[in-house]
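REQUEST ID: PR-0412
SUBMITTED BY: lab tech R.K.
PRIORITY: routine
TASK: structure prediction, single protein chain
INPUT:
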Amino acid sequence: MSFAATSSPDGVRRTGEPSGSPDPYVPGHGTNAYRVTRYELDLDYKLASNRLNGRAVLHAEADRPASAVVLDLAGLRAVKVSLNGKKVRRFSQRAEQLVIVPDVALLPGDFFVLDIRYEGNPAPRRGLWGEVGWEELTDGVLVAGQPNGAASWFPCNDHPQHKASYRITVTTDANYRPVCNGLLISRKSGSSRETWTYEQAEPMATYLATVQIGRYDVLTLDSSPVPGNVPQHVAVPAALADSALRGLARQPEMMRTFVNSFGPYPFQEYTVVVAEDELEIPLEAQTLSILGRNHLDPGWESQRLIAHELSHQWFGNSVTVSIWSDIWLHEGFACYAEWIWSEAAGVMTVADRAAAAWRKLDAGNQDIVIGDPGPELMFDDRVYKRGALALHALRTRCGDLAFFALLHDWAATNRHGSVTTATFILTADRVTGIDSEALLHPWLFEPTLPALPVR
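STATUS: complete
OUTPUT:
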């Protein structure tokens, strides 16, 4: 959100009123008034006291006239702010926003750099989706940012459409390892503290930024000299290393299956973090996923989750929705990736998975529109399953050759970009040559479940 010259309902133009959230699913978060192109985060964290002292340097460009810049920041206190190297005299916090007032209003095209020092005891945000954001584990830290948890640990323009590069530096207790997005570029050790720096060069949405801290060893999952091989690692407590290697034994094969199905892996490396705690669900972040110790079973239920989170690197992390109402473009695709892996692994065919999902949906309530499910239902299992069935209906109509050409084109054309359902329909029309809007509309925008798609 940003404060700018806006029009009120009575038609009178006033300065200093909120411009409004660009996404109704997360009101009060994010803005189109400016874009952050790079975040440089320097975090000093003490585990015993859950104390965070942070510095965030934001490189940004104004897109609209603004008399103030407003950032999302929840539960932490800004103590010092500078704009373009000059101390800001007026800034304040209210609710979950940091309001920064420059001496001179920003104009479209103005580039600016904010340097913010902040501190506090980070905690998850509570809302419709439970607790999201910075969370203490039994012996470490987990960050789950989706959809609006990023502001729990750094000041940001928290909107999925806005992507930026990141440098994340974490200083914490010795014998603990922070794992963040991107590549580890440096590590410095002291007597009782260590500093780790990661660089995430590819553009990333704020909700995908993460810090995981634990007593982790990093093991290599796949070092085979296969052309196009993606380096894969697992960060895991020593006591869980054997279980992690067994549970993730087929992940390199999953990676090759998805590269064949979707196109090249969109980042430089992939890391799975295994927390010592049990987790309700696994989590994805850009270039890494987070599992609990309870997600390492070789059975299908755990293996489908491992495949699901891996596939999000293409659909969700590289190709990201512009607005949360299009969440099926993440979850429907990842669910369909589970089915693709099921068939490749010899567990169950895609057609049988689709039929089982359809029967379950047919037996339940049909009162959701997955193309715009509303914030309360955006993570409803029907968004996942019916989204996957929509893709299966498209595949059944156009055939395998055109369908997988579409997935390759979708991932390549929109690599590290932001998309909408309308964009996907236009792409499907172009690649497959069929009227995909007519086919997909009943699946996405009508509550009644269409018939099971069959060849």
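NOTES: DSSP finds nine helices and 25 strands in the chain.
REVIEWED BY: pending
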